[in-house]
Amino acid sequence: MLSCKETTELLSDSLEAQLPLVQRWAMKMHLVICANCRRYRRHLLFMHKIMGAQKQLRVLPEQARLRIKEKLEESVRRPRI
Question: What is the pTM of this model?
Protein backbone atom coordinates (compact mmCIF):
# COMPACT_ATOMS: atom_id res chain seq x y z
CA MET A 1 0.00 0.00 0.00
CA LEU A 2 1.24 3.46 -0.89
CA SER A 3 1.85 6.10 1.74
CA CYS A 4 0.15 9.50 1.52
CA LYS A 5 3.44 11.07 0.44
CA GLU A 6 3.88 8.56 -2.39
CA THR A 7 0.27 9.03 -3.46
CA THR A 8 0.53 12.83 -3.63
CA GLU A 9 3.70 12.52 -5.70
CA LEU A 10 1.95 10.14 -8.11
CA LEU A 11 -1.05 12.47 -8.31
CA SER A 12 1.23 15.31 -9.35
CA ASP A 13 3.06 13.10 -11.85
CA SER A 14 -0.24 11.93 -13.33
CA LEU A 15 -1.03 15.49 -14.44
CA GLU A 16 1.98 15.46 -16.76
CA ALA A 17 1.92 11.91 -18.13
CA GLN A 18 -0.02 8.69 -17.87
CA LEU A 19 1.31 6.49 -15.11
CA PRO A 20 2.03 2.78 -15.56
CA LEU A 21 -0.92 0.54 -14.76
CA VAL A 22 0.54 -0.75 -11.48
CA GLN A 23 1.09 2.78 -10.15
CA ARG A 24 -2.37 3.93 -11.25
CA TRP A 25 -3.95 0.93 -9.52
CA ALA A 26 -1.98 1.46 -6.30
CA MET A 27 -2.86 5.16 -6.28
CA LYS A 28 -6.57 4.43 -6.81
CA MET A 29 -6.56 1.86 -4.01
CA HIS A 30 -5.01 4.40 -1.64
CA LEU A 31 -7.59 7.02 -2.68
CA VAL A 32 -10.39 4.60 -1.82
CA ILE A 33 -9.31 4.52 1.83
CA CYS A 34 -7.79 7.98 2.36
CA ALA A 35 -10.10 11.00 2.52
CA ASN A 36 -7.18 13.41 2.91
CA CYS A 37 -5.57 12.29 -0.35
CA ARG A 38 -8.94 12.48 -2.13
CA ARG A 39 -9.25 16.08 -0.91
CA TYR A 40 -5.69 16.80 -2.06
CA ARG A 41 -6.55 15.34 -5.49
CA ARG A 42 -9.63 17.59 -5.80
CA HIS A 43 -7.56 20.66 -4.91
CA LEU A 44 -4.76 19.65 -7.27
CA LEU A 45 -7.17 19.17 -10.18
CA PHE A 46 -8.84 22.50 -9.42
CA MET A 47 -5.49 24.33 -9.42
CA HIS A 48 -4.51 22.56 -12.64
CA LYS A 49 -7.78 23.70 -14.23
CA ILE A 50 -7.24 27.29 -13.09
CA MET A 51 -3.66 27.38 -14.36
CA GLY A 52 -4.78 26.06 -17.75
CA ALA A 53 -7.43 28.76 -17.92
CA GLN A 54 -4.86 31.42 -17.01
CA LYS A 55 -2.67 30.36 -19.94
CA GLN A 56 -5.65 30.59 -22.30
CA LEU A 57 -6.56 34.04 -21.02
CA ARG A 58 -3.31 35.50 -22.31
CA VAL A 59 -4.06 34.71 -25.95
CA LEU A 60 -7.83 35.15 -26.17
CA PRO A 61 -9.71 38.28 -27.17
CA GLU A 62 -11.04 40.39 -24.30
CA GLN A 63 -14.67 39.24 -24.63
CA ALA A 64 -13.72 35.55 -24.48
CA ARG A 65 -11.44 36.26 -21.53
CA LEU A 66 -14.30 37.79 -19.57
CA ARG A 67 -16.60 34.84 -20.31
CA ILE A 68 -14.00 32.35 -19.07
CA LYS A 69 -13.34 34.44 -15.98
CA GLU A 70 -17.07 34.53 -15.19
CA LYS A 71 -17.36 30.73 -15.55
CA LEU A 72 -14.36 30.16 -13.27
CA GLU A 73 -15.74 32.51 -10.63
CA GLU A 74 -19.11 30.75 -10.86
CA SER A 75 -17.50 27.35 -10.35
CA VAL A 76 -15.63 28.64 -7.28
CA ARG A 77 -18.85 30.02 -5.77
CA ARG A 78 -20.78 26.79 -6.42
CA PRO A 79 -20.76 24.67 -3.23
CA ARG A 80 -19.13 21.25 -3.47
CA ILE A 81 -20.46 18.24 -1.68
Answer: 0.64
